[in-house]
Amino acid sequence: MDNFEIIKKNLSFCEKKKKELDDIRTGTAREAADILNVGGVPTAENIRELFSGRDVDAFTFASVCSFVNKEGKTVLQPPKSVTYVRNPSSDKAFLAFSDRFGGLSASYSGDFASCCEDVYYDRADACILPLEDSDVGLIASFRSLMMKYELKIASVCRIYTDEGAVTLSLLTSEYTDYSGDTVEIFFPDFDPSRLGDLSGICGFFGAEVIRINSTPSEYTEGYGHHFTFDTSESDADSLIYTLEALFPSAELTGRYNVICTE
Fold first, then answer.
1. First and final CA of the chain: distance in angstroms?
2. Is the pLDDT of residue 46 over 70?
3. What would the pLDDT profile of 89-104 be if each residue is shown by its tens digit?
4. CA distance 126 to 122
5. What is the 3-state secondary structure (H, E, C) of the chain?
6. Which of 112-116, 160-164, 254-258 has the lowest mean pLDDT?
7. Residue 153's CB: how many other CB atoms inside 10 A?
8. Amino acid 40: pLDDT
9. Residue-wise pLDDT tens digits, 140-151
10. What CA–CA distance (Å, rounded) separates 189 from 217?
11. Burial of residue 235 (number of CB atoms within 10 Å: 0-12, 13-18, 19+)
């Protein structure tokens, strides 16, 4: 047997052993989840406790989370009243959002901060803010308003014009679209060395990172990171649960579908 054949044989042996270990890991993860599920949905702390005192293996962590019972979550009511600053694009977005959520009532504000305050103080269920445009990409000032008033993206409307495209978001205090195949999560103090863990979790669930935006952090001298995931081919609930469990400071900031209109 020549050296090349020996290498091929050793690689096949390694793949076989890896498959056996993966099967053992999956079985162990299922057993762990069965124990954690007794008495209700386990908290993130319960999950992390399994891995305390050693480096977290993202694949195994995701395996446990994938078997955890996530039923029984509170289903929030979609918005009914919306406030926004009127212009041709926001009027089009309002009509698209109204069609999406079965009829919305509108009121109008003189500025974007007032729109956010109306939602924050429960004077309206939702507001409409620009999110990005084809010239500058993500509009940081509006993203900052969204974070300041603790708002979440429930839907997104992309409007195409002769000048390009503008994307507007429907923001609420709590509601996100559980059917949405786009998920946004904010990591206020993300350690770049953990990109491998995040990538491994995405790979496990079949999700894809489609955008990363960085903004100056309010907590450190570094940056906070807004990750956007395409979950059309994955279990979005499990992905969100896993990321929020593995990264305690992570915050879901949106789950939505994108509406496109001329």
1. 66
2. yes
3. 899 999 999 998 888 9
4. 9
5. CCHHHHHHHHHHHHHHHHHHHHHHHHHHHHHHHHHHHCCCCCCHHHHHHHCCCCCCCHHHHHHHHHHCCCCCCCCCCCCCEEEECCCHHHHHHHHHHHHHHCCCEEEECCCHHHHHHHHHCCCCCEEEEEEEECCCEECHHHHHHHHHCCCEEEEEEEEEECCEEEEEEEEECCCCCCCCCEEEEEECCCCHHHHHHHHHHHHHHCCEEEEEEEEECCCCCCEEEEEEEECCCCCHHHHHHHHHHHCCCCEEEEEECEEEEC
6. 160-164
7. 25
8. 72
9. 778 888 989 999
10. 8
11. middle
11: which 2 tokens?
A: 């690689």
Q: Position of tokens 């593995």?
A: 246
Residue 34, both tokens: 């069965």
pLDDT of residue 72 exceeding 60, the answer is no
- 137: which 2 tokens? 């990409």
Q: Which of 136, 132, 138 is nearest to 159 (CA)?
A: 132
Residues 222, 35: Cα–Cα separation, whole Å = 39
